[in-house]
Amino acid sequence: VGDSSVLTCSPKSNITMLVWNIRPEVGGPCTLGYRADNNLTHTNCTDSMNWKFRPNQHPALEIQQVGTAHEGNYTCETVATEGNFVATYYLTVLAPPMLTLYCDDHGNPVCKAVAGKPAAQLLWVPDSNFTLTEEGHDNGTVTVVSKLTANSANRTNTTCVVFHPAGTQSKSIAC
Predict the structure, then answer these.
(1) Is residue 67 located within the same domain as residue 128?
(2) Whole-number Cα distances in Å, 16 to 5, 57, 74, 140
(3) pLDDT in tens, 49-72
(4) Which end of the chain offers a freer environment for a tag, N or C, measured as fewer CB atoms within 10 Å?
(5) Are residues 64 and 136 in the same domain?
(6) CATH code of 50's domain
(7) Residue 65's domain spans which residues?
(8) Digit-coded pLDDT (tens) for 77-125
(9) Which of 75, 91, 107 is a domain's end point?
(10) C-alpha to C-alpha distances, 15 to 37, 44, 50, 61, 81, nearest whole angstrom
(11) 6, 52 in Cβ contact below 8 A?
């Protein structure tokens, strides 16, 4: 989330035409087209999706500030002197969760991995009894909340570790 992503296709030379058909999971489809004979481009996609031209390379699709709404199928169709070629990508968007750790009103540590995609996994160190809840959000992200039980919270320092494909994080607290 938030980064730019560049999708390329067809390393073929002598491209006549190249078309990206984009079908996101959220929202309607759109198309980007390129004709080499007159260097003409066409798009009905949002401003966040556009061609990225580089010297001595074929046009690529650039998605600026990737968000969860960009997740979906991206198919590149190329017409070249060597033939017609199709490449399909499925763009999966990772949203790293924001980690918060605090003590509740009863002195129990509470760890939250807020708005991650996919849902984060939480672990307490040292290992203890805990409750775990998940809350899904409309944008496809998930908040995971873990609370240590009163019996296991009687330690001077407890660490919450959050595992996520976008990276591992940890924080420690003494309640």
Answers:
(1) no
(2) 25, 14, 20, 38
(3) 888 866 556 678 999 999 888 999
(4) N
(5) no
(6) 2.60.40.10
(7) 5-91
(8) 999 888 899 999 999 999 999 999 999 998 899 999 999 999 999 999 9
(9) 91
(10) 9, 22, 18, 15, 7
(11) yes
